[in-house]
Structures are given as structure tokens and as C-alpha cells.
Amino acid sequence: MLLTNDDGIEAPGLTVLEEIARGLAREVWVVAPEHDQSGVSHAVSLHHPIRVTERGLRRFAITGTPGDCAVMGVCHLMAGAPPDLLLCGVNRGANLGMETVFSGTVGGAMTGMMLGIRSIALSQAWTDREHVRWPTARTLGPGVVRQLLAIGWDEATCLNVNFPDLPAAEAGPLTLARQGVGLLQGMHVETRTDPRDLTYHWIGFRRGPREQGPESDIDALQAGHVVVTPLRYDRTDEEAYQVLAKVLPRR
């Protein structure tokens, strides 16, 4: 089993993921970013070299993205015996709706899928960032992964799992959901001045309530369920495709 994340190799969520994995697999490899890579999506490093630092037995820190970690793990460090499963997480915060496009956690899992490895992204929702309910993911994670492996899924799909911000005993059962709109309402730029009177900027998300589609991931999570959504690279909008197909030639 190969583990990675986007919060970095020292992140508490990765420690939780290692505990989950060691109850499921005989051999666990960790290939994770040296520093926080949140928001890098599916990015891979094409314009600078990647350095690898060994942090213990089958444990490596990478100067790159979660996608880089998946590639380095599958194609280099484990090239002689590729993993049967890639787990990416456990992310600090849910990955839902449109925000999955930006997620390094989902991006790492999608890269694993692209490389032919069954892959699952795992995230823990929180209300208070300083008091994340890691025990929920730690307790429920092994059973969730076992259940998904027993069911099986198309290798051209990765699974996105979110744990609710509830004690494990109060969480609802694993529930299938569609990717909803989420809470993303837009982006904002905050401009500041440093001590040398030079301007710099922070980019961030604007979030708020939005109407969700049927069976949405966010509605299921807010109802207290552990939620799984199958994701794939094909982002073709079938409704728009059919409209355009009436006036444009098709190949």
C-alpha cells in the first residue's frame, strides 16, 4: 500500500492514515510532500528537480506535490512491486463539490488512478480547525476501506471519502453521493504591505451556502454520514455536449 497526502509528511492526518493502513496491509510505503501542498490539485513538477529524503523504513519526503509523490512512489521507489492500493490523506478538512478541482488530496489520488493503481482520497471534516476529530477517521477508516475494497470499483475511477465532524459512534454509515456544487462562491484577493513597504497578496476562497443538487456529497456529510463519491478525469458535460452537437460537427 502506498500513502501520500497534501498537508505534508509531518501532518497529523498522515499519522492517522498510517495507523489505518497498518491494520490493512502487510507492507506500507509513505511518500509524502516535504512541505504543505494544499491546493495544488493534480500538478506535477516539470520545471525543477525533485529531491527525495528517507525518513525511516519505506518512508520518504519529496520536494514536490502529491502528484509527484504518487509518480515517485509508483514509478520509482516501488517500481519493482507497484502498490495494490494508494491512499491519499487524511486531509485536514472536507473535500467536497467544486473544491475537489483544487484539492491536492484528490489530485494525489487521481494521479494514482492515472497510473493504474486503485486510489482513495480521504478527508476529515472540521468545524474548529484547532480541534479536528482525527479519532473519527482513525476509528472508521479501516472499515470504510475494507468495505470499498470488498465492493470493488472501476480502475478508471478514484474514490473520494469524507468523514463527518462527529464522534465516530455518532457518524452515519458509508453513503454514496454525487459531487455537489459545494460551498465555493468565488475567490478573493487580500492585499497587504510588508515592513519594506512592498505589496504582496493572498488568494483565498469565498464560501457560503448554495443550493445543492440531488444526492450531493455536502448534504450527506452535513447529515452526519461518511460519504464516498466516485470521481474520474472525464469532465465532459453531457447536457452541454448534446446542445452543441446539434450545430457542430462531431468526430
Largest sheet: 9 strands, mixed
Number of beta-strand segments = 11
List unreliable stretches of 5+ residues: none
Per DSSP, the total helix count is 6
Q: What number of structural domains do the residues give? A: 1
CATH topology: Stationary-phase Survival Protein Sure Homolog, Chain: A
Question: How would you name the CATH homologous superfamily?
Answer: Survival protein SurE-like phosphatase/nucleotidase
Strand content: 25-35%
Broad CATH class: Alpha Beta
The end-to-end span amounts to: 40 Å
Question: What CATH architecture do you see?
Answer: 3-Layer(aba) Sandwich
| Order of strands across the main sheet | 3-4-2-1-5-6-7-11-8
Estimated structural class: alpha/beta
Helix fraction, binned, reads 25-40%
Mean pLDDT reading: 96
- Estimate the global geometry from the Cα principal axes: globular
Computed CA radius of gyration, to the nearest angstrom: 19 Å
> In sequence order, what are the helices and strands, one letter per element?
EHEEEHEHEHEEEEHEH
Briefly summarize what is shown.
The chain is of the alpha/beta class and 251 residues long.
Please describe the structure with a list of short key phrases separated by commas or semicolons.
single chain, 251 residues, alpha/beta, Stationary-phase Survival Protein Sure Homolog, Chain: A, nine-stranded mixed sheet, two-stranded antiparallel ribbon, 6 helices
Describe the protein.
- This protein is of the alpha/beta class and 251 residues long.
- Helices cover 26% and strands 27% of the residues.
- The chain has helices at residues 12-22, 66-77, 104-114, 134-151, 217-222, 238-245, and strands at 2-4, 29-33, 52-56, 59-62, 85-92, 118-124, 158-163, 172-176, 184-193, 199-207, 225-231.
- Helix 4 (134-151) links the parallel strand 6 (118-124) and strand 7.
- The longest helix has 18 residues, at 134-151.
- It is globular and about 55 Å long.
- It starts with a strand and ends in a 6-residue tail after the last helix.
- The mean pLDDT is 96.
